[in-house]
Amino acid sequence: MTPDPNLNVLGGALAPCSTDPVTGFFRDGHCNTCAQDQGSHTVCAVMTAEFLAYSKYVGNDLSTPRPEFGFAGLKPGDRWCLCAARFMQAADEGCGPQVHLEATHRRALEIVPLEVLERHAIRRD
After folding, report:
1. Of residues 33, 17, 48, the one with CA closest to residue 110
2. How many helices (H) and strands (E) does the chain have?
3. CA-CA-CA-CA torsion sign (111, 125, 48, 26)
4. Which residues, 6 or more positions from 90, have their beta carbon under 8 angstroms from its beta carbon?
5. What whole-number distance in Å separates Cα of residue 79 and Cα of residue 82?
6. What is the pTM of this model?
7. How does strand 41-46 pair with strand 79-83?
8. pLDDT, tens digit, for every residue of 62-86?
9. Exposed, middle or buried by CB within 10 Å (0-12, 13-18, 19+), for 25?
10. Which Pfam families does this chain map to (predicted)?
11. Quick one: pLDDT band at residue 2, thresholds 50, 70, 90?
């Protein structure tokens, strides 16, 4: 598997998303992707209780630990490389989490318009 060029949605170098917990399709802390990444795990999102409850409700439980997969479960405040379509679905439902634009891979733009990502961007004061 060869990763796609690691550029973010702003055109710059892809920043790390999270190494605690370790995230990404390649489990390298970045939202890198490749042709084998069917889910396009490209959106670096900051988990909220609302989003975690929503994700569980629609069939993707990200909060329950799964030790057999080395997964401790996510909690509010954790950063995670979300599937772009799941992010878009949550955004459409009004519970999209905040997004770290510099750590969101440009391939997310194939599914999520930049304007939607910008509306959910982490605000830096």
Report:
1. 33
2. 3, 3
3. positive
4. 51, 54, 55, 96, 97
5. 9
6. 0.92
7. antiparallel
8. 999 998 988 889 999 999 999 999 9
9. buried
10. DUF2237 (PF09996)
11. low
